[in-house]
Amino acid sequence: MEKTVTEAAGLRQVALEYITPNSIRKVVRRPRVEIEAEEVRVPFNGGTLSTRRWGTGRPVLLIHGWAANQTDMFAFVPELVSRGLQAVAMDLPAHGESSGEVTGLEELGHAVTAVGKHLGQLQGAIAHSVGGAAVQLALTNGMEADKVVILASPQDYGAGLRAFAKRKGLSDEEIDQLQAMLLEMNIKTQIRSADFVPEISVPALIVHSNDDHIIDVATAVDLARYWKNSRLLLVDELKHRGVLKDPIVIREAIDYLLK
Question: Would you state the pLDDT for residue 122?
């Protein structure tokens, strides 16, 4: 049955909500380091991506998750700098101080690729949640890194869309229409790590908390199973965001990058 104008407008509103991060756009906090950040804008898709950099060693790229900004990753900066590395935090498209208002996973992957290529060969990347999925795509797009650390990452973007749509009360038929509408907006939703991660040769440390209620720990188990050169680190009582500030996770992540 053809949708009425009102029904189509309602679906479009859901689509726009899905691709609009609504993150805090001004970066006002600073990591606990004595040196000042170097702010660099990286050209991307007719706009720019905001990055901040500390230290002078080999670069480690820090990538936040959905509806966040680069400050989510600042707890990693002091340890990286103290161990002779350059910490580079970025804002994803439509997040923080980067350009754009709406975005999808495919564009996030291209953005991470752009910053990675701008920096050159990375010592590594540390990424949280959807940022972890973006790093997976970036590695298939040609980003060069010795190793990566993936924190609480999803691995089925389409499943995430369906869960979001179900919470909005959409039927299965309406969800199919929503996916088609997003595709017309150049937002691809049928992206699964299982389809491309097995071809990635870059080693990965996959970290996930057993009590993560945003992305189930079974996701990390699956991801580690088909990421052929990976190690799985399961932690307790950190939920989805605690992995960003836990001293043990931070130390394990940086130890892994330096081994």
Answer: 98
Arithmetic mean of pLDDT over the chain: 96
Just give the CATH number of 5-258.
Answer: 3.40.50.1820
Question: Going along the chain, which residue ranges are E strands?
Answer: 38-44, 47-54, 59-63, 86-90, 122-128, 145-151, 204-209, 230-235
Note the pLDDT tens digit of each residue in 30-56.
999 999 999 999 999 999 999 999 999
Whether 81 and 87 have beta carbons less than 8 Å apart is answered as yes
CA separation for the pair 33, 46 (Å, rounded): 33
Region at 90 (left for phi over 0; alpha for psi -120 to 50; beta for the rest): beta
- What's the pLDDT tens digit per position in 104-141? 999 999 999 999 999 999 999 999 999 999 999 999 99
Q: Please tell me the distance from the alpha carbon of residue 224 to that of residue 205, in angstroms, as a whole number.
A: 9
Sequence letter at residue 240:
H
Indicate if the pLDDT at residue 22 is higher than 50.
Answer: yes
- Whether residue 104 contacts residue 182, with contact meaning beta carbons closer than 8 Å, is answered with yes
Count of C-beta atoms within a 10 Å radius of residue 51: 23
Sign for the pseudo-dihedral over CA of 66, 23, 104, 140 = negative
CB contact at 8 A, 198 and 224: no
Angle at 73 between CA 129 and CA 49, to 5 degrees: 85
Residue with tokens 């439509």: 94
Domain map of the chain by residue range?
5-258
User: Using N-to-C axis directions, what is the helix angle for 5-18 and 157-167, rounded to 10°?
Assistant: 130
First and final C-alpha spacing in the chain: 59
pLDDT of residue 1: 41
